[in-house]
Amino acid sequence: MKTQINDDSLLDKYDVALLSALQQDASATHQQLGELVHLSPSQVSRRITRLQASGIIRRTVALLDPARIGLGVRAISYVTLARHGEDEGAAFEQEIAAFPEVLECFAVTGESDYILQIVAASLNDLSESVLRRLTRIKVVNNIRSNIVLQSIKSSTELPLGQVGR
Known about the structure:
This protein has helices at residues 13-24, 30-37, 41-53, 86-96, 123-135; strands at 3-4, 10-11, 73-81, 102-107, 114-120, 140-147. By secondary structure, the protein is of the alpha+beta class.
């Protein structure tokens, strides 16, 4: 069975296997990937190019260990805006895009309007540099933060088990 990825393309079992292998090691050569998924290196190359063009593979990056490079403090912050209009949301999103310490920003339903994942070198840096700057954003009404004590699970791998069936 194939899974639709856009108007013109479908994911088959080889695409799913290739995506799974790339999630494990994106630095693998086309030869190595081909051996894993039983395709020639040229077929692997064509498929990767198609998956990139379709937007399924957004980009290829190196995953760094934040603690080993001096960014050992992580916080999850819950942001509530003063008002809930399109302009306020757009203003907040534009401002937050300029915060390199904010790894992820999610617009959510519920008690908060946004949830942020933030990294910093120290609690002082988190407090002084990040949270204080967040409070200066005019549309922000409230910020509540939790400091991460321990990461139990951290993964960038998407569960591909149901894709392509």
